[in-house]
């Protein structure tokens, strides 16, 4: 069936969902070999139609397979090398199923695609006793069935940014109680354009990341942002205090430390990309909208606000609706409406007419867009808000962020504990991916919001349910 290679290289049998999740998975197994059962190719063919991400990935996988197999039609049993198109790390071979397998699985219904894949893996295991044959699938059920019949099975981990999301960059660091004793020698301080800077030197400075917040909560509280790091010294800038009513943003003041730090990033025109993580009710959307309205309507830094989100329903889909793109997106934008209500209520002096006028003005400046029509666009001087960003794959996230033209700020909001998309996990979500990859860039900022501020009921529910 397959020419036996050294026992040190493993043989990975790929399930269709791995290929449809990541078409480049064919090149991610280094020196090991890949085997594709005929059922996998059939399922790829069945899923190639349409404009969904899955259909695009199925078509891309088919193109990759054609390039790998190429004109090697006579020697398919010996495998086709995977090191094509500069993929030099993939030194293994690709094998396609060229012979029918007649292995009965008495416990399982034979005609089902998953069970046919399992019978192929069992046959390979029997024909190559000295070699590890491993099934790779994103489907938990097939992995459980595989273990039940004595077949090795694994999830596809290559797309994971982090093994443990507890290690994800939070955007801030608490300074120890003895920080000033070790770092205040040769300290310099100066003011520039109303902002206060300190240059400090000491052992902790090496671990600082640019645009990371540092805070000291002992006898004299100190909140600052790291502006530059050079060896053992760092320049810190004191953050603006948005908890004070005189510094309120569109009538909103920060209610806790993390919200204050988030507003510092959102209101900084020099920061082009902001990511805010946090559970329900921490104020992600409200803070972002308040700062977007201030900078669009009052300061006129941006020409308009564009808001988009992934349309993944929590329950059943609501079906087709008539109307324009904005009207079709309206059911998904309840969060936007709720937050605008809060922002409008903050101005009580104007009365009903004034509020209605403000509301109309805000409506003209906020555009709601669907992700489906984002390809090929360029946004100039816009404030782009990507809500529910945890439901995006890293590839979709790249597509969206690369829409930004000059003068555009992109803000990604999400809660990685609330992923509604199949095959995405906390470790492989596009939001986790960008937080990790943008860390330390001079025009990027990130804050993980911790405390819920929605209501005592919502906070209690989030903790105990």
TrEMBL record:
Family recorded in the similarity comment? In the N-terminal section; belongs to the PINc/VapC protein family.
The PIN domain, residue ranges: 10-144
Question: What Pfam families does the database record attribute to this sequence?
Answer: PhoH, PIN_4
Report which superkingdom the organism of origin falls in. Bacteria
Q: GO CC terms on record?
A: cytosol
Recorded GO molecular functions are: ATP binding
CDD domains in the cross-refs = PIN_VapC_PhoHL-ATPase
What InterPro entries does the record tag this protein with? Answer: P-loop_NTPase, PhoH, PhoH2-like, PIN-like_dom_sf, PIN_dom
Keyword ATP-binding in the entry? The reply is: yes
Q: What is this protein called?
A: PhoH-like ATPase
Q: Which UniProt keywords apply?
A: ATP-binding, Nucleotide-binding
